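Predict the assembly for these two chains.
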Amino acid sequence: MIGADDRFIAVDWGTTNRRCYLIDQGRAVKTERDDTGVKALLPQDYPAQIAAIRDRLGDLPILLAGMVGSTVGWRDAPYIDAPASLAALASSLLWIDARTAIVPGVCFRDDDRPDVMRGEEVQLLGAVEAGLAPSNALLVQPGTHCKWAVMKNGAIASFRTAITGELFALLGEHSLLASQMSDPVDAGDAFSRGVMEGRRRDLAASLFVVRSSSVLGTAPLTKNCAAYVSGLLIGADVTARVAEHDARTVHVLADPRLGALYATALRAEGRIAIRIDSHGAFVAGVTKIWRLIS
Amino acid sequence: MIGADDRFIAVDWGTTNRRCYLIDQGRAVKTERDDTGVKALLPQDYPAQIAAIRDRLGDLPILLAGMVGSTVGWRDAPYIDAPASLAALASSLLWIDARTAIVPGVCFRDDDRPDVMRGEEVQLLGAVEAGLAPSNALLVQPGTHCKWAVMKNGAIASFRTAITGELFALLGEHSLLASQMSDPVDAGDAFSRGVMEGRRRDLAASLFVVRSSSVLGTAPLTKNCAAYVSGLLIGADVTARVAEHDARTVHVLADPRLGALYATALRAEGRIAIRIDSHGAFVAGVTKIWRLIS
């Protein structure tokens, strides 16, 4: 479909945000980020959105990844099954027209705990493709719905999603603890105390400690409660996941703030946390898909 | 303060509801329930509320229990420390006037996980007083903030609060799973499946199974999701608590619906669940306090 020119546009199009990349010879030469996520759009809005992106970044082929390919996005690109490689993604693109395609998500059909991802697969596989993580590794992508992926031979072998970030947002916005959770979250003492408590894997009881400490005026939980709750949730997530895996090292794909929080919780479990650049991983993954179809 | 007449009024005054009892010789001869909880009132509203209760139920002494004695109620009745008995509550009443008193709450000053209760102490101690539970027992009061209390020699020795009911409400009202959680919750198959999953003590990951099952159309989680989530939360609560206690039997103080759910989860852990009448327990507890001060 595509000429010898190695330039194309890639869009990581999520629920609330999107990030557009102009990629030339495997490098992002221009990047835009805005809040035109799929929840702000109807299916009929996409052709004009795509045209506008081409107006800004160039009249080039476009690869789209993320929730844009879901039932709440533009078109539903059916999941491919784990184990999933970049080659499998490339051969299962949903083509909108000859210059526009959507990368499918990946599903893990476990009998007890089936799982799905959409958008994260490009980053995960790209991290290995770029040499940022080895081809056999445990990777984590913190966020609203945190993904933990086991990579085997460079493919996504299995994965688990934990709604750790969503629980934090629910508690901070709507719970009886919300009024106590206005402090900024960093990887300090309150966070670490939460991590230790989170290792009990007893969230419903540990959360009430925030309230009882406040009522009784018991230090140190009368302040830094958001940091404590963040530590509690991330600690419980990390503890449950490392119990499932014997990986000594975990690669963390996240922005610096969230990456530091997960790295702290992983170290508390005696693991080595290696932080890697999630945007670089995305660019490497989507470029590989692009080259496989060019 | 009080004459030989054995009649008095007791009010179990919570955050969102209150229940008023006219008690004559230890028996509730008249009961009213309404939604005039403390969050609907300001401190200055209480004298008129008390006068109105006396207008309806009789010009009698009144004992108040619950959040009415908190910083968000009428007056703050300081907590007494566990271990706490009915005699200790009776000797620590906060007197508003010679015919009106507030029963204090109980606190448990554990270094790691301090805890507080207000209102539940009368039911817990009353259950033992009425012979509904033995004087050494593990009792549970399911609800928004579920209380688990260890009774020793008829006193509350220690207790733990889990915000199990609050988490269920948050998920059902505000989470990404909310739209799937419209089914009525009963102790059927979906609930039991949730209980089994809850035993993993991995809430953030187990909750995403609701979403991934729906996306993939994997039975049986495409329906009865509220029942599953309820089972998940109650199962995690029960599993964590029985790991702390070796009690073979657990006494459940709850309405029939919630009592059936906790009993089901307790049986899944191999425990014997004995359901007891929480209103009867409250009347027995508050009557004992009344007689101790009469």
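Chain A touches chain B at residues 79, 107, 109, 112-116, 145-146, 160-164, 166-167, 170-171, 173-176, 197, 200-209, 211-213, 215-216, 218, 233, 236-237, 240-241 (CB under 8 Å). Chain A is about 35% helix and 25% strand.
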